[in-house]
Amino acid sequence: MTASILLCSIALLSVASAFPSPTTTANNLPTIWVAGDSTTAPDGGHNGTQGWAEYLHYSFGNRVSVNNSAYAGRSARSFTREGRFDMIAKAMHPGDWIIIEFGINDGGSPTNGSTSTTGDKGRADCPGAGDETCTVIFNNTTEIVLTFPTYVKNASKTYLDLGAAGVIISQQLPTNVWQTGSYAYREPIFAYYDMCLGGPEKHVYFVQHGSYAAQAQKILGADIVDANYPMDNTHTSPLLADVVR
Ligand SMILES: *[C@@H]1O[C@H](CO)[C@@H](O)[C@H](O)[C@H]1NC(C)=O
Ligand SMILES: *[C@@H]1O[C@H](CO)[C@@H](O)[C@H](O)[C@H]1NC(C)=O
Ligand SMILES: *[C@@H]1O[C@H](CO)[C@@H](O)[C@H](O)[C@H]1NC(C)=O
Ligand SMILES: *[C@@H]1O[C@H](CO)[C@@H](O)[C@H](O)[C@H]1NC(C)=O
Ligand SMILES: *[C@@H]1O[C@H](CO)[C@@H](O)[C@H](O)[C@H]1NC(C)=O
Ligand SMILES: *[C@@H]1O[C@H](CO)[C@@H](O)[C@H](O)[C@H]1NC(C)=O
């Protein structure tokens, strides 16, 4: 316990001293980069559904540009393994913002011998909230699988070290809160916020996006919400995606 608190403050000090001041980007507009899964991504889960970040630019007008790098089917683990957090790291500029929202594909436990279409599909994180690891063979390669917080914290720290103006760790969206016929919402386990990164003082923010979306769906009511999950209880129509952006 003492050791981990100590490590935490050392890590924090190095982030603080390395933190560059925001500079302007090529087009003088900061970019908001979005990492996430199909509930966030362009074309959502396909079949006419849409991810919420496609509408995010309407919240900012011409003051920022938005790059929606979310990708259907991904978890914090597979987004890391496939180098998708890295792609954002390479493309971003100091002064940019990054939103990270995962959870719907992160559940379960890593299993040996899964492929991109079988088993846990290389998506399940190692259970736990700390530095636990799980060793599995995925796609014929040995993979040390980490916990959800480890992946999110690592990506956040990468962006902060590169001078991000802020990292927003966003709680996953709910599935249809009316799917049983009456309203039900439970806080997800894949929500993470670590004061080790320094919190708002160090430009790390947690947004209760899921709770907000559940509240919006509650107010809209069952008929409207059911009609705006056209394919399943996970992927939203463009209208509902826009409501929760
Ligand atoms: C979604 O569309 C694909 C073809 O693009 C189709 O194979 C699939 O069955 C559809 N799924 C649903 C749930 O409508
Ligand atoms: C941490 O982030 C860096 C940069 O995105 C990435 O290259 C590396 O694989 C990540 N490591 C872990 C343990 O997630
Ligand atoms: C958005 O970011 C990704 C990296 O995550 C990059 O490959 C892509 O070209 C960017 N899109 C635009 C339109 O700049
Ligand atoms: C599986 O491994 C092959 C060979 O290294 C690679 O080309 C492919 O992208 C991997 N597939 C997945 C789903 O990671
Ligand atoms: C997967 O197989 C490896 C090698 O046989 C083993 O060390 C590991 O514990 C297995 N992992 C799981 C989750 O079963
Ligand atoms: C794993 O390797 C075996 C034997 O080399 C091969 O038959 C199989 O197609 C490979 N699986 C994947 C997912 O690449």
From TrEMBL:
Keywords: Hydrolase, Signal
Signal peptide limits: 1-18
Family matches, as InterPro entries: RhgT-like, SGNH_hydro, SGNH_hydro_sf
Domain of life: Eukaryota
Residue span, SGNH hydrolase-type esterase domain: 35-116
Family (UniProt): Belongs to the 'GDSL' lipolytic enzyme family.
SUPFAM superfamilies from the UniProt entry: SGNH hydrolase
Gene Ontology molecular function: hydrolase activity
Protein name: Carbohydrate esterase family 12 protein
